[in-house]
UniProtKB/TrEMBL annotation:
It comes from Salix dunnii. Keywords: Cadmium, Lipoprotein, Membrane, Metal-binding, Methylation, Prenylation. It comes from the Eukaryota. One of its GO terms (biological process) is response to stress. This is HMA domain-containing protein. Belongs to the HIPP family. Residues 28-91 form the HMA domain. One of its GO terms (molecular function) is metal ion binding. The keyword Metal-binding applies. It is found in: Membrane. InterPro entries: HMA_dom (IPR006121), HMA_dom_sf (IPR036163). Its main location: membrane.
């Protein structure tokens, strides 16, 4: 350990008050919620509740899409909990642009309540293992690979 490493260690030790445990800093992130809002009063109630949280930098509301976008140093679960505390039905934004989904009009992804150009964000649950393959029994009966397979001759 060189001189600079020793000085850095000592400054960290003194700066933290002798404790080695460092608190993990939250990352700046954007949280999108779908919140059921009918009027200006609902919109204001949700905006005031979320704006009062510590770490929130910006709150944008699009009532037509029922969408709330929160930017700041926040946890998405805490923002969701705060939005639900207003008495409104809230969930994490479940939609993605339809061009990002493999089959946007599958039964699980298609949602009539989704904003234009969006579908529900679902995992690709359709697998090729569910498709049953029909195998013709006559093709394996006369196989050159298995000379004992011919039971007619």
């Amino acid at each position: 350990m060189g001189v600079s490493g020793t000085l850095e260690y000592l400054s960290d030790l003194v700066g933290s008050g002798g404790h080695k445990h460092k608190k993990k800093k939250k990352q700046l992130q954007t949280v999108e919620l779908k919140v059921r809002m009918d009027c200006d009063g609902c919109e204001l109630k949700v905006k005031n509740a979320i704006s009062s949280m510590s770490g929130v930098k910006k709150v944008e509301i699009n009532r037509k899409q029922q969408r709330v976008t929160v930017t700041g140093y926040v946890d998405s679960n805490k923002v969701l909990k705060k939005a639900k505390s207003t008495g409104k039905k809230a969930e994490i934004w479940p939609y993605v642009p339809y061009n990002l989904v493999a089959q946007p009009y599958a039964a699980q992804a298609y949602d009539k309540k989704a904003p234009p150009g969006y579908v529900r964000n679902v995992e690709n649950t359709v697998t090729t293992g569910t498709v049953t393959r029909y195998e013709d029994p006559y093709t394996s009966m006369f196989s050159d690979d298995n000379p004992n397979a011919c039971s007619i001759m």
